[in-house]
Amino acid sequence: APSMPAGAPRFDATNPSMAQALAGARAAGKPVAVFLLANWCGFCRKLDAGALQDASVHAEMANFYAVRVDPDTATGREFSRLARGGYPTIAILDANGAEKANWPGNRPAPDLAAKLRSAR
What is the pLDDT along the chain (120 residues), one digit of tens a residue? Predict the structure, then answer.
């Protein structure tokens, strides 16, 4: 596969419903990676400008059906229970919606890439 250019990651879906996210994951044969990012959240903006710009993180995201969720949208509220530690939160769900991993907070790219790798 060609290496992804630096810049914004390619999410498979933005603000899907939970049902849409799980259906997409099943179709792709991948677990779901839910990126809960609130517009008003400073640490979410830091994650967006930092680790989510990193090619190593993009490479790991490709192993998941990656969805970006704004918890303040109608469909985003379905995911907000995952953000027990506040925002941002990244949660890994299997294709049936069972939670496999959950990491709150902004983190540097090497840490996020390693966490995603461990959760495949």
Answer: 444 455 566 799 999 999 999 999 999 999 999 999 999 999 999 999 999 999 999 999 999 999 999 999 999 999 999 999 999 999 999 999 999 999 999 999 999 999 999 999
Beta strands 13-14 and 89-93 are unpaired
- pTM (whole model) above 0.90: yes
In whole angstroms, what separates CA 3 from the centre of its chain? 20
Contacts of 106 (CB under 8 A, 6+ apart): 43, 44, 46, 47, 50, 51, 88
Q: Are strands 89-93 and 32-36 parallel, antiparallel or unpaired?
A: antiparallel
Instruction: Return the C-alpha torsion angle 53, 56, 62, 66, nearest 10.
Output: -40
Q: What is the CB neighbour count within 10 angstroms for residue 78?
A: 18
Count of CB atoms within 10 A of residue 95's CB?
Answer: 18
Dist CA 63 CA 60 (whole Å): 6
Continuous H helices in 35-92: 42-49, 55-61
